[in-house]
## 1
Amino acid sequence: MAEDRRRTLTIALAGNPNSGKTSIFNALTGARQQVGNWPGVTVEKKVGRLTHGEYDIEIIDLPGTYSLTAYSVEERVARSFIIDEKPDVVIHVIDAANLQRNLYLTVQLLELGVDVVLDLNMWDEHLVCGAELDCDRLSTLFGAPVVPTVGHRAEGATELLEAAIKLAENRAEAHRHVPVSYGPHVDDVLSELEGELLRRPELVGDYPVRWVATKLLEGDFEIEQVMTAPPAGDDELAVLVDRCKRHIRTATGSDAEKIISEGRYGYIEGALRESLTEQKVDRMEVSRQIDNVFTSRYLGYPIFFLFVWLLFELTFRLGSYPMDWIDAFVGWLAGTLSVVLPESMLSSLIIDGVIGGVGSVIIFLPNIAILFLGIAFLEDSGYMARAAFLMDRVMHSLGLHGKSFIPMLMGFGCSVPAIMATRTLESSRDRILTILVVPFMSCSARLPVYLLIGGTFFAGRAGVVVFTVYLVGILMAFAVGRVLSKTLFRSVPSPFVMELPPYRLPTPRGLLVHTWERVRVYLKKMGGVILVASVVLWALGTFPTLPRETIDSYESDIETARASDGRSAEERAEELETELERLRVEHSFIGRTGKAIEPAMRPLGFTWEMGVSLVTGFVAKEVVVSTLGVLYHASAEEETETLSKALRAPSSGVTPLAAFAFMIFVLLYTPCIAAVAAIRREAGAGWMYFALAFQTGLAWLSAFGVYQVGRLLGLG
């Protein structure tokens, strides 16, 4: 048997935001990717695998970050992975047209003592600028291989991979660990600290000693906690660090952190002076001219809303055709199976539970895909950053900044991708706060409920009433955001410093990869959740079954009625069938739940049937209408007008005031189980439970207020 000679290699991709790191990751891994979250945080983790020669290679896409100072979640994740997991090679993806800013992270990687390959990405834009860079000289000065690439066209990807393998095998000619100097005052102090740390190996552990000394002088919180804070820290070391900081301040007149930062930039400037000639063309000039129109005070907002309108118009207009096809296929499949399969619990489970659950997800897939494709186009073109910039002032009233506006806007289409879109926010505080207010944006799934209730009870003013409900959702989002930012999220919002990249024409490959990444997550995570929930709901609505003698009695009466002549006999048979279905629901767990929660619904003016529809609507808001149809003597095959008549009938117990309060409740309570799963995925179980309790409680209080105040005013 031949011996397996394959070897494994772990490569980490690091880089600034907008450096093209994702395009390099896609160029190297293609579709061989897995997406999840880093342990303990909400930052997205991407892992790609490939084979090259005798190597099985795993590529880890680290979060985009400007430095490794561990101020943000992204910086902590990137730094912890490099230190703790010790990848064989770190590929630093650099925007070749912005070398000075990008190389700051390179210097910090060199401080960690890792093996680095410098990937000069967007090399085509660097060439357009007219600058000349001596890559060999830059490689010598930084002690790292340098490879030019064009990520979105996959140019240089093979050479980059080979350079990483060569470095891992210690065959890179230019490779050396460059000692970064911060000037004589800091270097002398660092030497003293290094000597002291070498006598405390139990504190230093696997950290590079010089790096630890540098971080202590910079006042890095995590390193200070490990090295100097009680109970595990060393008091003598803390005293020495404090003395060293005071010495630097006395000698230079500045804080150690500032002097070290200046030393890094000084090193970069010296290296570029020896290897780079100044660019002759400003690559941002065209973008600035476009921004004079797209971000202007008078035209910026109209242009933005035009693009948003086009995005949603295309999403629903283009998506309606494949949506109808999928809907027809699901209906055909359910109808075919209902004929082929004998009537039984198993057939009911397959048709009503499995097919109904999967169909409720797949039917919206075209809309989701088109929406994600449009968003990917806006992101890759550079316009999404401008949209966030435009809305920054408006979002400040929520204690947030402009980037939070994009997920909130998406919430009008569907809460699930909107919650997923909060990954673009750098701050954990901003991410969670945005996630908590996104569900108040009325998603399209709630619209059937608004149309039913509004058309039934407010026929002449249905449009105004539905618009009012949407407006209440927007105002509530702003009010809740402001309250939460002043209570649970009292920390200062992260400053809104968003880099405006140059406008670029997105590539078809990049758009498709980005769209597929998001669609795949939607199908995999949300489809499974809705499927399981639908099956559970089916079981709760099916069991326990009515006693056999009750069913036999009703079926006998139905057969007798059908055997009679005349329209009244047929109507009597339909009434008996509907009554039997109603009894089945009342006898089931879901019906008993409705009776159990009726005392909580009565102060809102809701009947127990309305309470049950809210429970089933937890799966998907469209289910609210179908549940009301069953409970109010209207089958799923009949027209909505039949249900409207049943709701308007005095025997229904529903008043216009209670109906409006019901719409407010549907607006404010938990959107759907898929959105709840998305909150858990993006923010964690704790915030998911908080959102459930908070949104449901707010919905109850708001509906209670509307109903009771309306009664006091004599409105119902």
## 2
Amino acid sequence: MDPWLLMVAIVAPVLAGGLIALFGPTLGERCAGIGVAALWVSTILSFVVLAGVVRDGVIQWGLQLGDLPITVVADRLAGVMMVLISLVSLVIHVYSGRYMTGDPGFVRFFALLGVLTSVLLGLVTSGNLLVILVCWHLISWLLAALLAFNKASRAARDAGRRALWIHGIGDAAFALGAVVLYLGYDTLDLRELFGRIGGGPAQAPAWTGFGTGIDAVSFATLCFLVAVMTKSAQFPFHIWLPGTIEAPTPVSALLHAGIVNAGGFLVNRLAPLFGLAPTTLHLMFVVGAVTALIGATTMLTQTSVKRTLVYSTVGQMGYMVMECGLGAFALAVFHLCAHGLFKATLFLNSGANIHKARTDFKLPPVVEKPEAAVFSTTTWATGLTVTLLLPLLILLAAHGVVRIPLVESQGAIIFLFFGWVTSSQVMFSLYRVRAVGSWKVSMVMLGALALIGLTYLWAGEAFTHLLYPGEGESARYFRAAEWPRLLFDAFVALSALVVVAVWALIYGQAKGVKLLMPRWMERMRARAYVAFLNGLYVEDLLRALRSPAHRG
């Protein structure tokens, strides 16, 4: 395949952005057509690139700038990410053509959008750690510019500044990790770097403060973890994400569907490094688990549609980082692709619905309150049975259909566990649909079970083979992330008990059995609700710590 097709796919959006900036004042809002046309070109070529790398292997193009080799590499990971980025950006470009009509910053918006798209495409196709760092930092500046797009809004300006400072922490950590790797292995070209780390560990420099107690790869991956935490909104660096609601809805969609996924991509791009740093992977799992718990809980307490979506993203990014920390790198890419597509759709729909509600407001019709739904033994029993049987069904199907060796590593159990937890959440949600006939809900539960089971089997086998076709490559990452056996079994058992206890709680509430909960726990629950409603007061703390120069 001709490498120039790859280059055209990458540079088309930025060229369009330059043309829009140059001729936008003359063309006015017609300049949107330039951006849309460029994204059509980029999207079509991205699909061509993905098909080419799957069929023919890696596509590479490079040049030498003095002693610095600049390489553009399209492998399977890059091909998948190019399709996701260009497709989401195309939808946002088309949507924005109407949404931004009449906005005084119309031309500037489309110019920035084109540049950001090309920078993201450059990030996922770079074969040099220095170029990745440059793109990573450019994203921070472009993100801040788009968040502060409405210059008349103080909240928008504050959101841009906050995002730039927080991402600056991750960018500095990224740069530090790159410097340590360069000093240890004398190269920033990824192919050479991955080859040299196999020759033996290099010690981190003494000025890092660790002396000879840590090798260069472990120190660098810890730095990269900080970068992942800032870009992918991990607790406590997630506080820049609520500010995205101050930006135009298309910007929010792009941020939540694209930029926050950068952490999952970075871990996969640098997988050979993270595969040699089990301590970093274990810490990554803890960070992701805490973020997922806080994000999901906070989401349930929000009263604003957009803030609900924001904290939903925080929770989903926590799951993605958890998957990386468990060595399920391919599953994390599958997760970020699925999340990117549905979250872009949710944000664009929320913007359209909010706009419609403001312009065509009507009071909802008054309806009589329906009678309380009667407890359905059929629905409850189906949900409980399906939830408990899913692990066994996946186990049998995995062994008999796709022949996945589930007993050889914790990694396969992880796929099973995520499939089970996902199905449990779906069963609990479907159980709440009690206004429908119980047999209908039961049939939907069985259909959801089949869909989830097949999805996780496909994600676990086909997608992993797509991204990591090398013999034993993905298994090596699972082994690197393995926990002590007793701790791993205890975690899975505890999670299983929680799921079963929820079904018992549902049954008890339906039968009028009240939990014996002391009053102090009831008070704590109320206070916890208020705390999560306010985002654990992290945003309030940040505002309190603002410098006096920014107050008033």
## 3
Amino acid sequence: VARREPFEEELLNYRRDGRPYWVRISGAPVHDEAGSFAGFMAVQTDVTAGHEAAQALRAREALLARTGALAQVGGWELDLTTGALHWTAETRRIHEVPDDFVPTVERAIGFYAPEAQPVIRECVERGMSAGEPWDVELEIVTFTGRRRWVRAVGEVERRDGRPVRLWGAFQDITERRAAEDDLRRSRERFMLAVQGTQDGIWDWDMLTGEVFYSPRWLELIGYQPGEVPYVASTFFERIHPDDRPGLERHLRDYLEGRVPAYVAEFRFRRRDGSYAWHLARGLALRDGQGVPYRMAGSQSDITARKEAESERERLQARLQQADRLESIGRLAGGVAHDFNNMLSVILGNVALLQQGLAPGDPVRLGLDEVRHAAERSADLTRQLLGFSRQQPATPRDLDLAATIGGHLAMLRRLIGEDIALEWTHAPGLPTVRMDPAQLTQVLTNLVVNARDAIATTGRVTIHAGPILLDGAFCATRAGLVPGDFACLTVADTGHGMEPEVLAHIFEPFFTTKALGRGTGLGLATVYGIVRQNEGWIDVESAVGAGTTFRVYLPASPLPAEAPGAADAADPSGSRPGRGEVVLVVEDEPSLLRLTCRMLEGLGYATRAAATPAEALAIADAPGERVDLVLTDVVMSGMNGRELADRLTARRPGLPCLFMSGYTADIIAQRGTLADGVRFLAKPFTRTELAERVSEALEGAPPAGG
């Protein structure tokens, strides 16, 4: 005013009551008609409403800036009429631009990563042409060179159908994308681990009853996702009825805190109705009061493991049974060996006492009873030796079909007319090497056992055929070697046996027959004979389903011998002694004395030795004559084979005859005798002694050698 210049100002005033208000004062100098300054004229306008609106706008802009910064959301606006692009502070912060940076459309698009630029250009073009808004997640490269993920949102504003403005927002989602990537990788690792372990996953909401079942869980029971209800009953109704009570009790104990963990094995029904063994593990989540509200875990198919465990248990039981039978066999063999010595003394003395007695002499008749009792005892001893695989044997190469066929008439008489006997054999049946008498024992005992299992009428079937046993089969049967075998099967339609009976049927003196109907040695003898011949015997039986025995005998590479060929080679008799000197070596005093008396009665001179050392001393004595050595095999200090080797070294060509209660082939396996030696089995009769001594002195081939 002092300078006489126009002015316009907005000033804050106060009303009479003290309330503020804003006015705009506009003034200009006034001149008179002569052009001289006459004063000022001013206009005052109340602009309080405008000031308040501007202040509210500034407050809203400040609030928007603060909330945008907190939410990491920035705005942008492009005026299509002027080309001016405006970024909010948060948008500038996201792009990490300096304060003097002026954004343009091309510079803004240039911030997007190279692979993202075509995407954002296409979004803008569709918005301009079709009015489509966009909402995409892309990567940008900030002013400082860092990569960031942003959510870019935009739309087009139109006026009279023409686009006039583009506006939108930016949100920094780098941390969210990183978290999502971590979650995705964790999920992938989890799924890889789950699929790698072949486990199915379940997640049970105990408040709603809903259960999540993973695709692998469904696959375990033969279903695809969506084919079964996702509820708890889907699980519980598939548990085997025998396993469900125990599983529910275990789960209840876990949820109520009585057991520390939920781990259960049970049978689970598949889609086809079959059952598989499953293993389930689970963990419960509990609220502040310890009440479970959610439980999750895994489930896997362990059928193969359970079957392997079952097979291992069966194999272990079989091995334990074999070990038990071996132990019993060793005990039985030892008892039978000592008993044979005693029987030899009894039978030998009976034979000596009966010489010179008239046939009707009461003493002779009494001695006959003693002899018969001793012979029956010898039969029992032979059965024990058969079980312990120490029965004297003369193996031959047998035609199995012809041998069994030759026994059919006898077997039919054994089983009677009410039981049918069927005999078949397959082509290609191999030769087996076995003592014919042992084969007869095996066949007879099995058929008699089958007969006794049939109450009234029924059928016994005998079949023989070739079979190749592989390593897997032999691995579960101790001592059996893979190769070609003949399989002899004896089956009956009898009442069958319980599992607890099957576990003991091959043990000596075990029998289910009534008192007086059996000794309990029949099947034990069969077992021993089969094992002695390097074979195996299996049995299958169930109550009401009959019993089947399968005997596996090794095939022989040689053709079968003609019937009676071996018997023809045996000597038909023996010559009396001519005073030859027999050196008898036996550590059982009574048997030593008896053997010398029997030899002397046969016309031989004897020299008795109770130990191998005494025998060597006799042989070394000057002028001592020895024509034959008859020695026991099993003796303390030195066995019979070692003694024979020393004696023949001193006296080359000296014949030796071995005697024992064990079999020749068992002794050979112990390394004490070679195959083909001359052997006399205890207990022996006077006639058997005469024949074997005569053979040895005459140089005849050993019987059965």
## 4
Amino acid sequence: MARRTLLDFFADVASLDGEFLVYDDGYRTWSYSYAEVAAGARTLAARLRGSGINKGDAVVIWSENRPEWIIALWGCLLEGVIVVPVDYRASARFLTKVAGIVDARATLVGDVVDSSALGTERPVWSLADVREAPEASLSGSREEPAITADDTAEIIFTSGATAEPKGVVITHRNILANVVPIEREVARYRRWAAPFRPIRFLNLLPLSHMFGQAMATFVPPMLPGVVVFSRSYSPDEIVRQIRQRRVSVLVCVPKMLEVLRDHIIRAAPEAAESPSGKSHWILRWWRYRRVHRMFGLKFWSFVVGAAPLDPELEAFWGRLGFVVVQGYGLTETAPVVTLNHPFHAARGAVGRPIPGVEVKIAEDGEILVRGDNVTTGYFRSPDETSAAFTDGWFHTGDIGEFDDKGQLHIRGRKKEMIVTPEGLNVFPEDVEQVLNAQPGIRDSAVVGASMPGSTAERVHAVLLVDPGTDVDAVVRAANASLADHQKIRAAAVWPGTELPRTEGTSKLKRRELKQWLAGGEKRERAEAGAQRSAVAVVQRFAPGRTITDATTIDELGLSSLERVELMMALEEALQVTIDEARYSGARTVGDLEALAQPLEAAGPAAIARTEPINFPSWNRSWPARTLRRASLPTWILPLGRFFARLNVEGLEHLRDVEGP
């Protein structure tokens, strides 16, 4: 049917049968059908209406990935309420600032965020309760709000160069410009997917990110498919989820492909071996059959977004027989500009522009975009908006070129913004502003530099300091004021009297600084690689920093994925097995050193703790369940009543509770 607004798409979603969303929080699993998601959205819409939150008002969502996030999104859209997503890793201070800018009427929060830090200025609702509404809000007739294609659906905020949040306005028309072309292409292949249904997606991209949102909210219903959300980023757990839930597609950032590659090579060393010459995909599948058994026979594809993908990483997974689909886009383009076709992927390219989107390369190599998917501008920022457009063309800040087949290749960035492996933006000026305010700092420069074995960039600082300044203390103090994704990973002291700058404009020569940093880090990595200790391993993740047993894990600025990488690096370098639960509780490098002792030296108690627990599965098989269900009422419970009397009160409170 014709799509005038996103509500037309919702009508189709509500009519679908079967399972839609699955959530595994590590303890229990919840499942929601398409009908339950639609009913929950209508319930929240009624609650919004009953609370006096109307069309044009804003509501902030601050939560981890969970089904209620999508229910809340649709509930707001039904009422014309503007959704303002905030990454769950953002600080409460950032959220409060954003909520004030949009004059949010309420904040919807998940389980892993600190909602107690939000104060009482505006209502805070738990996402776990969005499907419940007071009776008063459900009564009375509902007058449908008049919603058009040019109404604002979302405002998505990023950090600006002045440390002030900058909101990207996304309309129904912007999102539909992405949804409709993909839906038409999917329709061509839907009948071929019938034997493999349901197509399951394990989505690890945050729903506050437009691409993660699209791959959970809009693409799966086109098949229709199932979306699985998982709390854990451990490679063991990710592989287990894919195998046991029979997942077909993993949606993630490129960094996850790095973590999984290292995990796979450890478990199946033959994956690191590359056969000479080309071979048929069947032969490659057989050669790496142990890897395919680890993931399960239904898994075949990675869909990556939010950050640049290393071509070598793409080639590694392609050699194993998996398809890696990547695209290119920005929040301002809602989000897709180009997309690789899953069955005709071009390695090293980000695909062709989707229908309805125009792309051209400016004289200086910058990628310019025009189309209905492009934002109308930045929220209450006319100067920022006018600076981003020229004659209707949006300036992406990325450098690229088309090959002779019309495939777009990204060559770098024109802007000096750093894009982390998780797809979060860091503006160097924001970090430099905090650094320059620290005692003993005369000047600073922040650049994006890659970490060992990766092309992804992290925040590195080059400092011009007064004599006697403690650089590590400066970094600790600065990191205390920065958001997690902005935290300084490595720091180096510039040997000259002034940082290199251009004449006249006095702009920092960041490229020259990056080259200088790269030369020093190679030497440090070689020295650290020759040592076998937790301190030496951690040093590789924070080059230029002074690492001691007292250094805290938090001050290293590691993301959740990089903490997993660090654990794997410790196990590899020190030839030990580290218990994940104890690792999560480690606070300092000294704690890591204790965890990383060889098992013989750690004693029997440590060995018992570090061995994995393998729970039996036979007692959850269908014969065991059938026997148990028959035995409990017929002889187990009657026999038990000879020995114990049982008095149960309060069963009415459990009447509507869904069991595990």
